[in-house]
Design goal:
Blueprint lengths: L1 H12 L9 E5 L6 H7 L10 H13 L3 E9 L2 E8 L3 E7 L6 H8 L9 H17 L2 E2 L2 E8 L5 E8 L2 E2 L1 E8 L6 H4 L30 H11 L6 E2 L3 E5 L4 E9 L5 E9 L6 H5 L12 H16 L7 E9 L4 E9 L5 E8 L6 H5 L12 H13 L3 E10 L4 E10 L3 E10 L3 E10 L8 E9 L2 E10 L7 E13 L4 E14 L4 E15 L19 E13 L9 E12 L6 E14 L1 H4 L4 E16 L24 E3 L5 E3 L4 E14 L4 E13 L11 E14 L2 E10 L11 E5 L4
Parallel strand pairs: 1-3, 4-7, 9-12, 13-15, 16-18
Antiparallel strand pairs: 2-3, 5-8, 6-7, 10-12, 11-12, 14-15, 17-18, 19-20, 19-36, 20-21, 21-22, 22-23, 23-24, 24-25, 25-26, 26-27, 27-28, 28-29, 29-32, 30-31, 32-33, 33-34, 34-35, 35-36
Helix pairs in contact: 1-3
Length: 750
């Protein structure tokens, strides 16, 4: 440090007799004010000059981190402190890796423009970059720091990154695994051997993940403990790397031990707050069966939930195992400390700039003065997600004392009011454009109002709807809609006008019912006379008619989000009866079952599995018009085929004539993956299977149609609402099928 030499020079220049300080000056100091600087000094004006005090003062200044050099002069009692300050960083950048990801750069560099140039901080940033590259499996990475001093005295800093090579694991070997095959535990580890077509989803690319190497043995051991191997030992993997080809071979040495069986389950309550028999009902571990560590953990959580539902918010469940190595058994002990019953003091709502407080509070199953209940708390969060009003929501438990707590509900509102744009393209209907003005949360009241206009070369649809899911904040709901539609088919045009109204009721948290009425007037235009050549009896199905029908339905929905559920079921069943003072007379049944599973805890990232099923059936109880039957194709059934293009029959001229059906079913399997999480963009793969049965005796024997389709989708929470782009292909379509490779929609549930 240069200031030491400066102080030594000052000592040599001073006379042997004492010098009194008459004035203290500072030269070159910018970041510290003169008044602050003087307060930091160990010397004072009017006092004798003390070289040790000067030395201590210089060290204090240097520790502030602002200076590269400090020296002191003295002449005729005037002491002058000279400073050379560190330059300002006016530009900082990173090239060669993550150049466009400003968030990653910020988190790794942790240096902003305007900061002082500090070599120590730059070296720390370099280490963080190399560590991040190592976590991605890169080795031999090089990071160079280049600095350029600019004319204004500031510094431009650039981190030049040269990514290292990725090690590919070519072979995995396991020794000592006799009780479990490698196929049982290998899916749980991060580092796997490369497979053919490893780049394809579901295959292993073999890239070594250095940061996960230390955790993989623990993952293997956890799987063994799920099968009762409590003494299993898995050594750290032995890795042989060929640095010429950057390939590796890995091997694990496994000592399995014996399988332990559960000999007893002890529930030890510090004070008895629940009957032990009731508590044992939630325990899934079975006596005399192999111990399962996963079930053991889940049992601890179920016990905690059961007791927390009684108000014991701060209950502690400490699980323990008592192994009998001689008999290869284990006794399971759950030590339960319930604490005191807790009551809610207050519920605080935050983050809702638009949605009224009462709209949020009515979705909560806990309120001020009520006893704490953990299940109610979890259901409240899911209920908020199902409204579709919020992008995210959390409920924090703020402990006040042993007996009271506040609940802090924090929400981030979603863009519920938007202009919806949707559409698609098909070889049959051409370009379809849909424009709608819709607000699911009008003025923050929870009321849903929408106006929709849909146009294509063959369709025109207009509709207005208004619904309130909680009339006067009660468990009753209501809706009203009016619509007009025109659909031009190859051989005829259908005109429909109607109104729908209804009332619903929520019976439980997840079950609701609905009773509705619909009146519609339907007419046909531009009917091709040749249409009836195949079968004259079809003419009756193209007569204008009125429909008056009543619909009753029941719904079960315990999903955790409206637009992007990650868990739960959505099940609905409805029945419609037409024939009340109008022409149409039929009975319809519609059934849907959807299952959503988030896979984060199983595979380590936010993938979502979706399974969607539907079955519709209609019975002719007097008059089932053509327009009231069912169709298949497009979003909601089998993608890859034009919407509502199936089924059809072939007339005597070889033309495909579309008809409606009395039964249809479809099943869709989807996997959704995060694509650009920060942009709320996801990628999906899907496979659809559908069946449709015409079931009209007047048409003769018409074969059932089975169709399949597959494809990919882009899911994006755009500023105007959830956007879905679908790129689909049919599987072995027949020559008369109308295919559609692209569709998109905004505002619908994924």
């Amino acid at each position: 440090m240069k200031f030491i030499h400066a102080v030594s020079a000052l000592m040599l220049s001073l006379p042997l007799f004492a010098t009194t300080i008459t004035e203290i000056k500072f030269v070159g100091m910018v970041h510290i004010s003169e008044s602050i600087a003087k307060s930091m000094l160990s010397i004072r004006e009017g006092e004798p000059l003390d070289l040790e005090a000067v030395d201590a003062s210089v060290k204090k200044f240097y520790k502030q981190g602002y200076f590269t050099d400090i020296w002191v002069d003295e002449k005729d009692g005037v002491v002058i402190f000279h400073f050379v300050e560190k330059p300002i960083i006016s530009k900082i950048s990173m090239s060669g890796w993550k150049e466009s990801d400003k968030d990653v750069q910020s988190s790794l560099l942790q240096i902003k423009k305007g900061a002082l140039y500090d070599e120590k901080r730059l070296l720390e940033a370099k280490k963080r970059i190399i560590a991040a590259l190592s976590q991605e499996g890169k080795i031999d990475s090089v990071v160079e720091i280049e600095t350029e001093y600019l004319d204004n005295g500031s510094v431009a800093v650039e981190f030049k990154v040269n990514e290292g090579e990725t090690i590919i694991i070519e072979e995995m070997q396991y020794s000592g695994n006799e009780g479990l095959e490698a196929e049982v535990f290998e899916p749980q580890i991060a580092n796997k051997a490369h497979q053919w077509m490893g780049w394809f989803w579901g295959r292993n690319d073999g890239k070594m993940q250095l940061a996960e190497l230390g955790y993989d043995p623990l993952r293997i051991r956890d799987v063994y403990m799920q099968y009762g191997y409590l003494d299993a030992k898995i050594d750290e993997p032995f890795t042989r790397v060929d640095f010429d080809s950057y390939t590796a071979q890995m091997s694990y040495q496994i000592s399995e031990g014996d399988v332990y069986r559960t000999s007893g389950i002890v529930l030890s309550q510090q004070k008895e707050v629940i009957d032990e028999a009731t508590l044992r009902e939630v325990v899934r571990l079975k006596l005399q069966e192999p111990f399962n560590i996963k079930t053991f953990r889940e049992d601890a959580d179920r016990i905690k939930t059961k007791i927390a539902d009684l108000g014991y918010a701060f209950v502690q469940v400490v699980p323990d195992l008592r192994k009998d190595k001689e008999n290869k058994t284990v006794e399971v002990v759950f030590r339960i400390t319930p604490g005191e019953k807790v009551y809610i003091r207050n519920v605080i709502i935050a983050g809702n700039g638009r949605t009224l407080d009462r709209i949020i509070r009515r979705e909560l199953y806990l309120g001020p003065g009520e006893r704490y209940n953990l299940t109610d708390l979890r259901d409240s969060k899911n209920s908020l997600g199902r409204t579709g009003f919020f992008e995210s929501s959390t409920i924090e438990e703020k402990r006040i004392d042993e007996r009271t707590m506040d609940l802090v509900v924090k929400v981030k509102e979603a863009p519920t009011g938007n202009i919806q744009l949707g559409g698609g393209y098909g070889s049959y209907g051409g370009i379809l454009l849909s424009v709608g003005v819709n607000d699911r949360n009008l003025f923050g009241s929870g009321i849903n109002v929408g106006i929709k206009v849909e146009h294509s070369q063959r369709t025109k649809n207009y509709s207005f709807n208004i619904s309130n899911p909680r009339l006067n904040d009660s468990d009753f709901s209501g809706n009203f809609s009016i619509y007009k539609s025109i659909y031009e088919y190859n051989d005829y045009t259908v005109n429909s006008d109607g109104i729908t109204m209804g009332i619903g009721h929520r019976f439980t948290r997840f079950i609701s019912g609905y009773l509705g009425y619909n009146y519609a007037s339907v007419s046909y235009d531009d009917i091709d006379p040749n249409y009836f050549v195949l079968n004259p009896q079809l003419k009756q199905y193209f007569e204008s008619y009125n429909k008056s029908s009543v619909t009753i339905s029941a719904n079960f929905d315990n999903t955790d989000d409206y637009y992007l559920p990650r868990r739960g079921w959505a099940i609905s069943q409805s029945f419609e009866k037409a024939g009340i003072g109008a022409d149409a007379n039929f009975f319809k049944s519609r059934s849907t079952i959807n299952k959503y599973n988030g896979l984060q805890e199983y595979i380590g990232f936010d993938a979502i599995f979706r399974w969607k099923n539907r079955y519709f059936a209609a019975a002719d109880t007097g008059f089932l018009p053509q327009a009231e039957g069912f169709y298949m194709g497009g979003l909601g059934s089998v993608r890859g085929y034009e919407s509502y293009s199936l089924p059809y029959i072939i007339d005597q001229n070889g033309n495909a004539v579309r008809v409606s059906a009395t039964q249809t079913a479809s099943s869709n399997v989807e996997m959704s993956f995060p694509l650009v999480p920060k942009a709320k963009m996801r990628f999906s793969l899907f496979y659809d299977v559908g069946w449709i049965h015409t079931g009209r005796p007047e048409l003769g024997t018409v074969p059932d149609m089975f169709r399949m389709g597959y494809g990919v989708g882009l899911e994006w929470f755009s500023p105007v609402g959830p956007l879905q782009l679908v790129f689909a292909n049919p599987v072995n379509p027949e020559s008369n099928d109308k295919v559609s490779h692209f569709e998109f929609t905004i505002g619908q549930r994924f």
